[in-house]
Amino acid sequence: MGDIDFDFELWQNISREAKHFVANLLVYKPEERMSVRQALSHPWLQILKQPGIEISEQYQISTERLRTYYNTLKYVQTFQKDKRLESRWPRSI
Questions:
Q1: What pTM was computed for the model?
Q2: Are residues 10 and 36 both part of a single domain?
Q3: Does pLDDT of 1 surpass 50?
Q4: What is the span of the domain harbouring residue 64?
Q5: pLDDT (0 to 100) of residue 6
Q6: Which residues fall within 8 angstroms of residue 14, CB to CB, at 6 or more apart?
Q7: Between the CA of residue 79 and those of 55, 69, 74, 86, what are the distances in Å?
Q8: What total number of domains does the chain contain?
């Protein structure tokens, strides 16, 4: 794992399991990083399957918000790609 400073004030109320989850996703070398399968079976995510555990609505992300984020991301990536291609075009026209 990398050197992540979980002592920062932002992390004060974050569970040990959540910090472990984040730290294992931020490993620099992909071959040492947690796989998708490992991430989905991580104890922090398994907590949500326990009876009586509910997530506050403020922490839930709607499908529409995810769709908007994804479409915006695609647009930005396309725009950046077009800009890189544009810089290679001849200016003699």
A1: 0.54
A2: yes
A3: no
A4: 60-93
A5: 84
A6: 6
A7: 36, 15, 9, 10
A8: 2
